[in-house]
Amino acid sequence: xxxxxxxxxxxxxxxxxxxxxxxxxxxxxxxxxxxxxxxxxxxxxxxxxxxxxxxxxxxxxxxxxxxxxxxxxxxxxxxxxxxxxxxxxxxxxxxxxxxxxxxxxxxxxxxxxxxxxxxxxxxxxxxxxxxxxxxxxxxxxxxxxxxxxxxxxxxxxxxxxxxxxxxxxxxxxxxxxxxxxxxxxxxxxxxxxxxxxxxxxxxxxxxxxxxxxxxxxxxxxxxxxxxxxxxxxxxxx
Length: 237
Ligand SMILES: NC(=O)c1ccc[n+]([C@@H]2O[C@H](COP(=O)([O-])OP(=O)(O)OC[C@H]3O[C@@H](n4cnc5c(N)ncnc54)[C@H](OP(=O)(O)O)[C@@H]3O)[C@@H](O)[C@H]2O)c1
Description:
Layout: H1 2-19, E1 32-35, H2 39-50, E2 55-58, H3 66-72, E3 76-79, H4 81-87, E4 90-93, H5 100-106, H6 108-111, E5 115-118, H7 124-127, H8 129-137, H9 139-146, E6 151-154, H10 161-167, E7 176-181, H11 184-196, E8 200-205, H12 226-233
Parallel strand pairs: 1-2, 1-4, 2-3, 4-5, 5-6, 7-8
Antiparallel strand pairs: 6-7
Helix pairs in contact: 1-11, 2-10, 8-9
Bound molecules: NADP nicotinamide-adenine-dinucleotide phosphate.
């Protein structure tokens, strides 16, 4: 009960902070767990470090992440998945999709109730039958199935990491990052983290709407501006 109250209080504080204007973590510099320190995890996690967030990167071989965290400086740390999930108030999952079932099972307790930004894409060549499942059930529903209890938001799926690296904090209209989720508060946290990384978050809809920007869809691999993306997805400014 005490824990529920604390969670609620923290959630209210986040909602108030967002309503007041500054992005999530801009003042509090909330700690983030990045599970997977490869192309996409290293890129987006690095942008959060530059924005002032403490970030713990994790993989099955955290010692391999040493060069990444040394390059990023003292706000970046490497750890086990367990250590990172305990550290982060929000989580970015950036591992091959085929790892989701095991990850979700092993860390169910630590993922429960966490805001999780889900960057994973399922491809047939790498992820086998999971790609077929995601294709028929929808990528959002498939992630929710394998990461039960997490407050899931699909984010950073729709472009190659190089496109994110090149366009973060670009001058003029920011590059749009489509996001989708069923939990409004988690969406607000994810939107703020997208802003902190240097992009314009575009809420496309609930988890089922994540198919609109999955690999191979018209919403994939674009560096559209926010207004262009909102028009293309048919969502309000
Ligand atoms: N690359 C892109 O441009 C891009 C763009 C959007 C979305 N995505 C999606 O993001 C995900 C990651 O792609 P990526 O290109 O960044 O892959 P990557 O460069 O191969 O990096 C994957 C990372 O995940 C770790 N990892 C693998 N299995 C793990 C497990 N079971 N538990 C913990 N860590 C694990 C790897 O380290 P260890 O092997 O040492 O554990 C590595 O640090 C994929 O689902 C991909 O579809 C990628």
